[in-house]
Amino acid sequence: MKIKLIATDLDGTFLTDKKEITPFTRKVIEEVQEQGICFVPATGRAFRAVPKEVLELGHTEYVITSNGAAVYSVSQSRRIYECLLSKESVEKILGLELDPAIALEAFWEGAPYSEESYIADPQKYGATAYGAAYVKRTRNPVKNIRLFIQEHAGKIDSLAFTCADAQKRRELQMLLEEKIPDIYVTSSVPHMLEVGHKDAGKGKTLRYLLDFLGISGEEAMAFGDADNDIDMLTEVRYGFAMENGMENCKKAAFALAGNNNEDGVAKEILKFIR
Question: Alpha helices, DSSP H only, in the chain?
C-alpha cells in the first residue's frame, strides 16, 4: 500500500546525537515531500524547542509536540489540537513531596520552563553533555517552578521530572501512577519521566492527525527510539524502532531501522518510496 504519511521522533531517531539533520536525510525527506507524502515530526519537545531546521525542512506542515499534548500548524504557527493535563492532576502532582535530587519542568503554551538551578547544571540531574547543552539553549528559567506551574494549572501541556538516580525515578513513577488516575507516565531518555494527560501520547495524537488528513494507519510509517514512541509505532502499519533504541521500543516495533547517527530513518524510507 502506498505510504502517505511518515511520522518520526527527533532526538535519538531523526536527529544525530549532535542534534543535526544530515545532508543525506534532508535530501530523502525533501524527495518524500515532493511525492506528496506528509512528513510529521513527533517529539517530546515543546514547539518552541523544535529546531528551526526541522520546522523549515521542505514542506513540513504539522508537528506533534510535548508527547502528543499538541499538534501545531507550521505555516500558521499555531496549535490546531491540544490535550492538556487537567487542573486537578497538576494540583495533585504539586502536592507530592519530591526528593531534592529530582528537577521539575513544565511545558506551557509551546515553551519549556525550568528552575534556574536545574538549567545551571543539568548534568547533576543525569543529562548527557549534549542534553545539558540542549537544556541550556531551550529552557526558559523561572525562580520557583512550583509557583509557575500553580499559576498556570489547567493550561499545562505536560510536566517532566529529571533525576540521575534510577531507583528514585522508579519510586516516583509508581507514586504518580498510584495517586493520579488521569495521567500517563513515559520516558524519552533514561534520566527523565514525562507526564501528560491519559488521552495524549504520540500514538493517540497521531491517530487524530491521520483522521484529520483522511489517512489510514495502513498508509503510514513511524520511527522512534524510546518508551514514549511505542504507542506511535503500534498505531501504524510500519512502526520502526531505531537500532540504538530502548529494548521496550524494539520489542513493540514492526521492524528495526539503522542507527540515528547513520541515517537510519532515511535509509528505511528509501526502501519504501523507491
Answer: 23-34, 52-55, 87-94, 116-120, 129-138, 145-151, 166-179, 202-213, 230-233, 247-252, 264-273
Q: Are residue 114 and residue 179 in the same domain, yes or no?
A: yes
Angle between helices 23-34 and 264-273 (to 10 degrees): 30
Q: What are phi and psi of 198, to 5 degrees?
A: -60, -25
User: How many CB atoms neighbour CB 263 within 10 A?
Assistant: 22
**CA 180, 181, 185: angle at the middle one, nearest 5?**
75
Phi and psi dihedrals of 108, rounded to 5?
Answer: -135, 125
Q: Same domain, yes or no, for 190 and 240?
A: no
Residue range 69-82, pLDDT digits in tens: 999 999 999 999 99
Into how many domains does the chain fold?
A: 2
Q: What amino acid occupies position 153?
A: A
Domain termination residue (choose one: 138, 168, 197): 197
State which of 197, 215, 233 marks the end of a domain: 197
DSSP string of 167-194, one letter each residue: HHHHHHHHHHHHH-TTEEEE-SSTTEEE
Q: Count of CB atoms within 10 A of residue 118's CB?
A: 20
Task: With CA atoms as reference, report the closest residue to 81 among 175, 177, 164, 201.
Answer: 201
With H, G, I as helix, E, B as strand and everything else as coil, classify residue 211.
helix
pLDDT exceeds cutoff 90 at 272:
no
Query: Do 170 and 217 belong together in one domain?
Result: no
Which cell numbers hold the place of 257? 531501522
pTM: 0.95
Evaluate if residue 274 carries a pLDDT over 80: no
